[in-house]
Amino acid sequence: MSNEATKSLQHLADVFKSLGHPTRLWIVRRLEHGECCVQDFVTGTREEFSTVSQHLNVLKHSGVVESERRGKQVFYQLRYPCIPWLIDCMEARDQFDLTRADDVRLDLRAKLEELLTHL
Predict the structure, then answer these.
(1) What CATH number was assigned to the domain covering residues 3-78?
(2) Which of 29, 35, 53, 87 is an S-S bond match for 77, by CB 3.0 to 4.6 Å?
(3) Model pTM above 0.70
(4) pLDDT tens digit string along 40-99?
(5) Each residue of 64-74: pLDDT tens digit?
(6) Rounded Cα distance, 80 and 118, in Å
(7) CA angle (65, 7, 12) in 5-degree steps
(8) d(Cα 68, Cα 79) in Å, to the nearest integer?
(9) What angle separates helix 38-45 from helix 22-31, to the nearest 10 degrees?
(10) Which of 45, 46, 83, 48 shows the shortest CA–CA distance to 65?
(11) In the chain, which ranges are continuous DSSP H helix?
């Protein structure tokens, strides 16, 4: 792969790096259901406000989430609605059992159809 080809993938690499923490994956899954403010994440994760803010900064810097200030609160939403779907697919694959291969394929196919509705 040429240097230009790898450079063009840098943004996606940054997105995947930013997902490399369980709390950030949890935040992304929570945002699948709609926008949230920082306090929603603090309550859900039981982590300190400053810790949650740092995680949100990583996700925002990589472009996974975007934010909007409303008064004193900042609300976050996903820029990539397909990421929770990808997480679901990866979890389904991790649960893959050769005796249930057809069931897993059907489940993954259903998740693919669901993803297509988001695009």
Answers:
(1) 1.10.10.10
(2) 35
(3) yes
(4) 999 999 999 999 999 999 999 999 999 999 999 999 999 998 999 888 888 877 776 655
(5) 999 999 999 99
(6) 9
(7) 25
(8) 12
(9) 120
(10) 83
(11) 3-8, 10-18, 22-31, 38-45, 49-62, 82-94, 101-118
